[in-house]
Amino acid sequence: MSQSRTEQTESKSTTILSALGSKYSAEILCAAGTPKSAQALSNDIEIPIATCYRRIQDLVDAGLLTCEGRQLSEEGRRTNIYRRTLDEIEVDFSDDHPQFSRKRRTEAKNRIQDQLED
């Protein structure tokens, strides 16, 4: 593997592990199985909204959470809606660098989940 490719892999690994290692990140990912705003996630998990926004940004940067769009809040403001991008992640530390295997969420699963929530 080239030096540049190795550095990219290490950087991505560090980003993912850092995001997963932060307090509340796992709870946010579990709660974001259906599209939710940062305020809804904050309320569901009972954490301060500023902390929730920081964890959301870390998870988005790591590719574990995505912004699915925007909707109007109860106050009439446009707010981002987030959903996790995977259902499972496995970390293998047996090599020189962590290796990740992920079970990504499919669009079909998202649509089914959305229908069950309605």
Automatic annotation (TrEMBL):
Name the InterPro entries for this protein: WH-like_DNA-bd_sf (IPR036388), WH_DNA-bd_sf (IPR036390)
Region ranges (Disordered): 97-118
Record field: compositional bias (Basic and acidic residues): 107-118
Taxonomically, the superkingdom here is: Archaea
What SUPFAM superfamilies does the entry give?
Answer: Winged helix' DNA-binding domain (SSF46785)
- Name assigned to this protein: ArsR family transcriptional regulator
Q: Tell me which species this is from.
A: Natronorubrum bangense JCM 10635
